[in-house]
Task: inverse folding
């Protein structure tokens, strides 16, 4: 059969003889009979029609899915660039874009559109880049390239626009026809990416001359020659944008002079400002990675000054929040908190800053203040982010029924909110309602099959229920790449440990401890290594590992393992200290394991359970606790 | 049917199709509403309505029909359009919702020249002589959804913005005109099938009384009033005709279905943010 597809409309029309049917991307299993007069509405605004000949239904559905992903990626990029959209939505769009960009063909097709014209003045590339974060490297890179290539994109477009109509032939629409073909074949993008180098421009021209969609057009040789000639000339003088480093150096030199003369600073193009900010942020993140916090703070002060001179407070707040999230990813909780404190100070009415501050306080174990911060975020309009944050605080405080009710309220108001649904499932898990939690995660996975966090959580419960093969099916077995991949990989290790395969589990944990790039996840691998050492009765080695773990996110679990190791090592006094501290704070797992350890090592009343029971409970403590750092 | 009616101001005859009195220049009411308010038209509707009540009483369904009528009297005028068209409207309260004819005259679109366009124009000339370019179409709905082949965004219009200028017709006007041979000669449009906005409940009762049994409950009303077909000819609904312009401020609510993909749902939220600026709510059902 033949088909016409529109990714924008999310619809394929299937034509077989006189019969006309449609297939919707949301429901590819169902064919709907259609009549001709409905086409204008079904394909409203569809400027992306693709005709397919001699294809079957599966091929049509697959192509429709891809084309729809391309259209969605463009929509998400445009929302991210839209200063009229809320920052929360723009950040969501960036996150959704990241998922779509996992397909490199989508990236290429998206760039074909984004590189066809320079961004309009009304777009906010700076804001889009502020919305990216460590977990969205593909989107970050896309916007970074888009910004860097704007001069080239503008040059290619201006050169095209300057070509007279007569070059394209006598037909009135000949230039438009050529334009559409050039756009569709990605020539605008290809030329923009080539235009800094004469040899690459020659290669572009060679490829374009041999492109059948182009070589069928009137006067194509002359058109390509006229299009590329001025760009080749410019390439000889290198039109690239100035380097960040040079601009930053100029900025540093220029600033005292400006201050002294008290003259208003020259307004710089947004693009150069953005590059400076991005450059300094990069230096700060590098310093954080090297744990050179004094260097990080030094550059941060420069960046804050720079923002205060040139930017708006919301941009400063966004920069600080962005860096705070980097600090969180790197496990530097004190710096995360310091940054969000400054963010709130810079823009006290910024909902996002308050939400980030709530997260930082929560990570630092300052529950009451975290609750206040989330309430502030809510008051300034953070919506479900703030409400979910409050529920997270309640959960961390061990107020599980209140947390469940809080998540329920978010779900009632925002049924699509996957964070609330996951949060609620986490609470059910912490309450020991494993079947209900499993059902909750199953429904999330059905509604959001792309959500690996939910898949990981589901595997945790399956493992705790002893359904090992089901648990392992959805967990990465090697080469984890993303943060959720690494978390899933750790859950694989926990599952193997629960199955009694200590060697295989140990191999997983050692790999994670060594190679996981996410500091907070890596800390959990450290704790997991301690688990295997306890199983092997290597108590001193276990204690050494645990002494190095310093995460408030799973402090209680680490205290239990430490208590176990100290008890076996007969370090009675320290064991009492650890137990006292453990008992003084809420913990997200039942009392039976701490009670058993108390009986064994502190009260010395003997044991109620055997070592295997203790081992399983220690694994469950992690499986059934929060798996996200 | 007389070709003119008396101007309420100068008492001279004003052609039915004229929205302004050619003699005193004062505006008339909305011609589609005037047609529905015509004495003979109302009398014919009353006869059909009373016959419907009698029929229902003999089946013991008169109470159920009255309940359905009350629900239909609270129905909304809903039109379905694409997200792009909705975003255009939401971009400014100076953006107008244009009719098919205005789009063609404005050079924004071309007539496809297909059979349906022809049938549409015949029906419009028959039912709205002289003012068809001013008529916007919607469907009566009880659940906020419009006819989905026309777009994924169902737009509920504010009753206080349209009640005075809206009439309703028992079915798709193209099919109505063809079914009754109304285009064949002047005055062939049967009476009793259209009503004013305030009489829409009675029209719905007259149309659907046979489908209302004693056990027909409120849960069935929505699908009784509007049945979605796969093609526009297969839809069954009561058509609303709104005279004159509409903007984003004419809209009360937009209803969309939840989408499978996260990105699509984010696009919906973007629309929601734009709509919110004009106090229009968005419902995801």
Result:
């Amino acid at each position: 059969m033949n088909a016409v597809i529109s990714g924008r409309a999310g619809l394929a029309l299937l034509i077989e003889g006189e019969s006309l049917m449609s297939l919707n991307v949301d429901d590819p299993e169902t064919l709907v009979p259609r009549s001709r007069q409905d086409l204008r509405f079904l394909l409203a605004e569809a400027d992306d029609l693709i005709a397919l000949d001699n294809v079957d239904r599966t091929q049509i559905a697959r192509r429709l899915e891809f084309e729809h992903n391309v259209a969605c990626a463009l929509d998400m990029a445009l929302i991210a660039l839209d200063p009229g959209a809320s920052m929360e939505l723009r950040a969501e769009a960036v996150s959704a874009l990241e998922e779509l960009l996992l397909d490199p063909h989508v990236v290429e097709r998206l760039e074909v559109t984004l590189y066809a014209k320079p961004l309009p003045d009304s777009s906010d590339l700076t804001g889009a880049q502020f919305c990216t974060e460590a977990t969205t490297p593909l989107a970050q890179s896309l916007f970074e390239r888009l910004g860097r290539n704007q001069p080239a994109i503008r040059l290619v477009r201006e050169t095209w626009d300057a070509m007279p109509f007569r070059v394209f032939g006598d037909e009135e629409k000949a230039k438009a026809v050529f334009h559409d073909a050039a756009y569709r074949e990605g020539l605008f993008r290809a030329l923009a990416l080539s235009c800094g180098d004469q040899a690459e421009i020659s290669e572009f021209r060679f490829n374009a001359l041999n492109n059948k969609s182009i070589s069928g057009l009137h006067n194509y040789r002359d058109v390509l020659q006229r299009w590329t000639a001025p760009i080749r000339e410019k390439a000889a003088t290198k039109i690239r944008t100035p380097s960040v480093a040079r601009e930053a150096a100029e900025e540093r030199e220029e600033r005292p002079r400006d201050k002294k003369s008290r003259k208003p600073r020259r307004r710089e193009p947004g693009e150069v400002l953005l590059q400076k900010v991005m450059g300094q942020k990069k230096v700060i993140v590098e310093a954080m990675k090297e744990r050179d916090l004094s260097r990080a703070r030094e550059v941060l002060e420069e960046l804050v000054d720079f923002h205060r001179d040139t930017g708006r407070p919301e941009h400063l707040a966004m920069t600080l929040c962005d860096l705070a999230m980097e600090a969180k990813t790197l496990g530097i909780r004190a710096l995360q908190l310091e940054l969000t404190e400054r963010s709130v100070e810079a823009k006290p009415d910024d909902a996002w800053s308050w939400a980030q501050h709530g997260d930082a306080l929560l990570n630092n174990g300052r529950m009451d203040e975290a609750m206040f911060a989330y309430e502030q975020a809510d008051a300034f309009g953070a919506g479900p982010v703030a409400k979910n944050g409050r529920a997270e605080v309640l959960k961390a405080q061990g107020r599980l029924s209140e947390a469940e009710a809080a998540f329920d309220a978010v779900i009632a108001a925002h049924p699509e909110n996957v964070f609330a649904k996951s949060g609620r499932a986490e609470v059910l898990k912490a309450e020991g309602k494993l079947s209900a939690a499993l059902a909750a995660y199953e429904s999330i996975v059905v509604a959001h099959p792309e959500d690996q966090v939910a898949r990981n959580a589901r595997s945790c419960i399956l493992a705790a229920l002893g359904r090992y093969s089901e648990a392992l099916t959805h967990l990465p077995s090697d080469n984890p790449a993303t943060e959720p991949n690494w978390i899933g990989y750790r859950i694989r290790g926990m599952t193997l440990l629960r199955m009694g395969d200590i060697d295989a589990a140990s191999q997983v944990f050692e790999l994670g401890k060594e190679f996981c790039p996410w500091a907070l996840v890596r800390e959990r691998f450290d704790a997991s290594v301690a688990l295997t050492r306890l199983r092997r009765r290597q108590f001193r080695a276990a204690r050494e590992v645990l002494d190095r773990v310093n995460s408030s996110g799973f402090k209680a679990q680490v205290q239990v393992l430490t208590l176990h190791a100290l008890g076996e090592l007969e370090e009675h006094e320290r064991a009492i200290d650890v137990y006292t501290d453990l008992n003084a704070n809420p913990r997200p797992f039942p009392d039976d394991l701490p009670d058993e350890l108390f009986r064994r090592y502190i009260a010395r009343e003997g044991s109620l359970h055997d070592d295997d029971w203790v081992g399983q409970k220690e694994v469950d403590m992690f499986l059934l606790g929060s798996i996200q750092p | 049917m007389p070709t003119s009616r008396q101007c309420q101001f100068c008492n001279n005859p004003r052609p039915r199709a004229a929205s302004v009195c050619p003699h005193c220049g004062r505006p008339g009411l909305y011609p589609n509403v005037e047609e529905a308010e015509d004495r003979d038209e109302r009398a014919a509707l009353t006869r059909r309505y009373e016959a419907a009540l009698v029929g229902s009483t003999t089946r013991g369904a008169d109470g159920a029909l009255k309940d359905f009528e009350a629900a239909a009297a609270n129905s909304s005028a809903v039109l379905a359009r694409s997200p792009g068209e909705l975003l255009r409207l939401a971009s400014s309260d100076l953006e107008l919702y244009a009719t098919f004819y205005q789009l063609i005259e404005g050079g924004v679109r071309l007539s496809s020249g297909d059979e349906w366009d022809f049938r549409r124009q015949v029906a419009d000339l028959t039912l709205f002589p002289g003012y068809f370019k001013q008529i916007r179409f919607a469907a009566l709905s009880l659940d906020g959804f419009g006819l989905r082949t026309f777009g994924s965004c169902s737009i509920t219009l504010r009753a206080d913005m349209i009640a005075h200028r809206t009439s309703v017709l028992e079915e798709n006007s193209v099919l109505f005109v063809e079914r009754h041979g109304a285009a064949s000669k002047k005055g062939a449009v049967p009476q009793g099938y259209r009503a004013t906005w305030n009489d829409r409940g009675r029209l719905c009762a007259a149309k659907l009384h046979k489908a209302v049994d004693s056990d027909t409950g409120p849960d069935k009303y929505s699908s009784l009033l509007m049945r979605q077909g796969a093609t526009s000819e297969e839809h069954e609904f009561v058509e609303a005709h709104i005279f004159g312009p509409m903007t984003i401020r004419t809209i009360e609510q937009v209803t969309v279905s939840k989408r499978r993909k996260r990105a699509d749902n984010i696009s919906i939220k973007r629309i929601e943010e734009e709509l919110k600026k004009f106090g229009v709510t968005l419902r995801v059902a």
Observations:
- Residues 57-81 of chain A form the longest helix (25 residues).
- Chain A touches chain B through 39 residues (CB under 8 Å).
- Confidence is low (pLDDT under 50) at residues 239-268 of chain A.
- The CA atoms of residues 110 and 316 of chain A lie 30 Å apart.
